[in-house]
Write a structure and sequence with these properties.
- The chain is an alpha/beta fold and 267 residues long.
- It has one domain (7-266): Rossmann fold.
- Helices cover 51% and strands 15% of the residues.
- It has helices at residues 16-27, 39-48, 65-80, 105-129, 152-171, 194-203, 210-223, 234-243, 245-253, 256-266; strands at 7-11, 31-36, 56-59, 85-90, 130-139, 177-183, 227-229.
- It starts with 6 loop residues before the first strand and ends with a helix.
- The mean pLDDT is 95.
- This is SDR family oxidoreductase.
- InterPro entries: KR_dom, NAD(P)-bd_dom_sf, SDR_fam.
- It comes from Vibrio rumoiensis.
- Keywords: Oxidoreductase.
Amino acid sequence: MELTNKCIMLTGASGGIGQAIAMLLSAKGVKLILVSRNKERLQQLKASLTRPEQHICLSADMTTEQGMEQISQLVHQYKQSGGVIDALINGAGSNEFQYFAQRSVSSLEQELRLNLLSPILLSQSALGWLQRPGIILNIGSAFGSIGYPGYASYCAAKAGIHRFSEALDREMDGANIRVLYLAPRATQTEMNNATVRSLNQQLGNKSDTPETVAQCVVDMLQKETASKWIGWPEKLFAKVNQLFPKLVSASIRKQQSVIQHFLNQES
């Protein structure tokens, strides 16, 4: 996809990765519809972008019916005014590092809805309003390919969005809509609290800047790359885990005492 003068909807726009994506896309001449729950941060982001007057902000909670209806209404109004939307980036997400047995039902429902159900529903809606040829890009996680202690429900959600993206891309073959999937590894954002940052440091896990992830997003949109994993050895682990999961289990087992130490801090 040629990005100049295209319009892209970006959810999770006020987060660390979302802001970096917005900055890079706006610099390339993209008009953005920025969606996030945090209205104040959205406005600050818009003001910092190239040609801020051409971007639209929407404060909406995608985990609620009201929030999804707000998005639908905005799309309807935008199209009524003659606008077209060329791509959707499902970037909203959250996780919680915690023993699964200690998670509340409400926190599990919220996490699964934001990371899995909401992007699925928005993608379904987008099939009706995306300009064709168009693109849906779902941002997942390396944990969608590697089940990791402390992130059971998050791994489940991201594995789900990976397979959803793969299946829908195949389903839309010949229909002029591509569905892409990007799996970052640990990224330097507020999503990772001090405990998680300490855990990664002690284990020697590398993390990327939001700008690194944003550049991958731009590259995928331009090349229409079906799927991509960021980082080494995470992308290797993702492949090995499909073929020889016992090898990955053995590697993680060596980290178990350290992981449990930091999980106990969150209990």
